[in-house]
Design goal:
Shape: globular
Radius of gyration: 24 Å
Largest sheet: none
Distance between the termini: 56 Å
Length: 415
């Protein structure tokens, strides 16, 4: 039994099972749902290590989880009958548990809005949603939120404790409550897709399963009239455009393939067309969110147009005004190099001074390569190599460094 295969199966089913168990038992005890799912996975590991992974591991896990929930209710009923005889027996009967794809969809959609209760605070909402609905581990949550493991563990503990203590935790939401929580939910989906599109802690740079799960949650939202649609459609457009290039990004042997080096025949035209459809639907309203602008940027990356880099640069300028971040500013400098000049882009990039980021050094290396300064390129690649953590990233940077050194050697030989 391959460890990676087992990990992938658990990753895909974790959030599904937690959401459904919370749906049946109630969201007040999130930890109980997580414990039951963990017990299910432990049983799977013990069983599958001897007999191998079954033909339908998803069905196996769901059946065991269903049985564990039934067992829990039976134990609870026995406890209540002996300790609390006054409790009405009907209140403790186990529900008819059945885990289907339809129930999972309904449970996840309901749970993600319930977890995004304003009383929890923004960071706690995101932590809980990424943990129990998206299956992120603590490292992934910490990286996605630019935090650390200790802080994330504290936020999760306090959030779960708060939920369990609230007598009036809101689980039946009004139309207004759904609309009021939409921004938090969209942020969760956005972070989920971003982690899949570029995994910050996993050796695989691209995690397709996480990307598809994020897109699936977005599609769930479009099926319900209670939600205002422009931002949802904009986010779906953004994800479709990015997902259209996933195969091209991972087509080489050396990890992530840069945009200019991708084989465009591998781009998924169907996803690009879906992205265009969602982007057109997103324009049906007066709202212009960051998802609208990022989707437009992603769209222009999918087309061949002489003036596209100027359009992309202007969109980055608008995005920075709407929501500044150093990463957006860093990405803008590449568009600046394409639209205006490499020298101007280098000056703008150096102003950011993100010395602790290997992405910063990689970008400057690329800009100096574009400018024909292979010695400067080599210096920044060497710095990036020291800062990179993942083995796959180190290998990719090392390959670029070797290429830069060969080019310099060839040039010196020619001179």
């Amino acid at each position: 039994m391959q460890e990676k295969e087992l990990s992938d199966i658990f990753k895909k089913e974790y959030s599904n099972l937690v959401a459904v168990l919370c749906h049946y038992y109630g969201v007040h005890d999130v930890q109980l749902a997580e414990d039951l799912v963990s017990e299910t996975f432990v049983r799977a590991m013990r069983s599958w290590s001897h007999s191998g992974i079954p033909d339908s591991p998803k069905a196996w896990l769901r059946k065991v989880a269903q049985n564990k929930l039934k067992d829990h209710y039976r134990r609870q009923k026995t406890f209540d009958s002996k300790i609390l005889p006054a409790v009405d027996e009907s209140d403790r009967l186990a529900p008819a548990v059945e885990i289907t794809d339809e129930i999972i969809e309904d449970s996840q959609l309901r749970m993600i809005f319930v977890v995004c209760d304003p009383a929890l605070g923004g960071e706690s909402q995101i932590c809980l949603a990424l943990r129990i609905l998206c299956g992120f581990n603590i490292d992934e949550i910490a990286t996605a939120l630019l935090s650390n493991k200790e802080a994330i563990n504290k936020k999760l503990y306090r959030a779960k404790k708060a939920i369990k203590s609230w007598e009036q935790f809101e689980t039946s939401l009004s139309r207004e409550a759904y609309a009021g929580r939409l921004d938090s939910v969209l942020r969760v989906i956005y972070l989920l897709f971003s982690e899949g599109y570029y995994s910050s802690v996993n050796e695989e740079s691209i995690r397709h399963d996480i990307c598809w799960n994020a897109m699936r949650l977005g599609v769930f939202l479009t099926r319900h009239e209670v939600f205002p649609k422009p931002k949802i459609h904009a986010l779906l457009a953004l994800m479709c455009f990015h997902a259209s290039r996933l195969d091209a990004r991972s087509s080489g042997n050396n990890g992530d393939i840069l945009y200019d080096q991708q084989d465009r025949s591998l781009w998924n035209t169907e996803l690009i067309q879906k992205g265009e459809t969602y982007l057109n639907r997103a324009a049906q309203g007066e709202i212009v969110s960051k998802y609208h602008i990022e989707a437009a940027i992603a769209y222009w990356h999918t087309v061949s147009d002489e003036g596209k880099w100027e359009r992309i640069l202007q969109l980055y300028n608008k995005l920075l005004i709407l929501e500044y971040s150093p990463i957006i500013a860093l990405n803008r400098t590449y568009a600046l190099a394409k639209a205006n000049s490499v020298e101007e882009a280098i000056r703008e990039a150096q102003k950011l001074a993100l010395e602790d980021s290997h992405h910063y050094h990689c970008l400057l290396a690329e800009l100096y390569r574009m400018n024909g300064e292979r010695d400067r390129e080599r210096g920044y690649l060497a710095s990036a190599l020291e800062l990179a953590i993942k083995k796959s990233e180190k290998e990719l940077i090392r390959n670029k460094l070797e290429l830069a050194e060969r080019c310099m050697s060839d040039k010196n030989s020619g001179d």
